[in-house]
What does this fold into?
Amino acid sequence: MKAIVTGHSRGLGAAIAAELLGRGIAVLGLSRQQNPILQREFPALLTQHEIDLADTARLAAWLNGPALEQFCRHEHDMAIALINNAGTVQPLGALASLAPIAVGQAVALNVAAPLMLAAAVAAMDAQERRILHVSSGTGRDAYAGWSIYCATKAALDHHARAAALDGSSGLRLCSVAPGVIDTDMQAELRATQEEVFPLREQFHELKRQGHLLSSPTAAARIVDFLLSDGFGAVPVAAFS
It folds into this structure.
């Protein structure tokens, strides 16, 4: 197997990439910045491309180039996995307060990029293609001040549901809510003013009570699930 991981330079994406690499799986990391720590530790297994996934035109040009095919070549009898992890929690706040450009950038990163990459991977000449969207409980429940993030995660869930109905041979998809993880995104939410994000105090309490998963723990669960025989049996899943 080979794997493509978006947002691999930090946080959960870095932990997922490290988990895959530690299991001997070659990784293509796509992010605005490279991950020098992983590059030093896994020089033979990690390939990195610096790309702003919120730039839809640039991503389209990259997908039309040779990089993805070169990484996946010689995998005809093996599996290719795509982990769509990159995303942004911004913009936060009531809908009327949001800048339209910020809304567009969030949708580009959280929805357009993973769906474009999914289409490219689904078309790869490999025996099996596995696509995992890193989703969220916010895609299934609505929260004040979080309309854009909720909507983009719901889009990933419904994309997996609909794509699974295509019945494409060798293609497995699942949109996974991995739980509440102790990442920079969590710190960003806790630093937001309460009038902008009414749930702020709940996230402070999760941190105080030690209820946040570490990134390595969450990554191990995600990779175990991705590699399991049951992956793709249902298009939407959540870890308890």
Notes: The beta strands are 2-6, 26-31, 46-50, 79-84, 128-134, 171-177, 236-238. The two ends are 27 Å apart (CA to CA).
